[in-house]
Amino acid sequence: MILNSTGPELVGVKETAKKLGVLLGKDPIFSGEENADAYLLNASKAHSAFGYPHVSLDTMIAWQAEWILAGGHDLNMPTHFEERKGSY
């Protein structure tokens, strides 16, 4: 069985970047235009099997900000958020 492990909320990249920017004291810079559609993931089977996440999205964003501000490293890999053909 393959289960999608995404969270239960619909979360936009722009909204998330703005929240992270506030915590980092920076204004995100966006380029291009948002599309009218998006790929959405349904993780209801995963939530049924494992339960609802115990950590909120806002908490995860705060943890990421803390990691960055503490000098934590990243993998320096592209996010592919702009991908529209399903090829990663």
Quick structural summary:
The chain has 88 residues and is mainly α. The chain is built from three helices and no strands. The protein has helices spanning 13-24, 44-50, 57-69.
Textual characterization of the structure:
The chain is an all-alpha fold. It has a domain at 13-32 and 40-70. Helices cover 36% and strands 0% of the residues. The protein contains three helices and no strands. The two termini are 22 Å apart.
Descriptors:
88 residues; 0% strand; mainly alpha; 3 helices
Secondary structure layout plus pairing:
Blueprint: H1 13-24, H2 44-50, H3 57-69
Helix pairs in contact: 1-3
Beta-strand content estimate:
under 5%
Helix content: 25-40%
- Radius of gyration over all CA atoms, rounded: 15 Å
Uncertain segments are: none
Question: Structural class of the secondary structure composition?
Answer: mainly alpha
Topology, number of strands? 0
Distance between the termini: 22 Å
Element order: H for helix, E for strand: HHH
Shape: globular
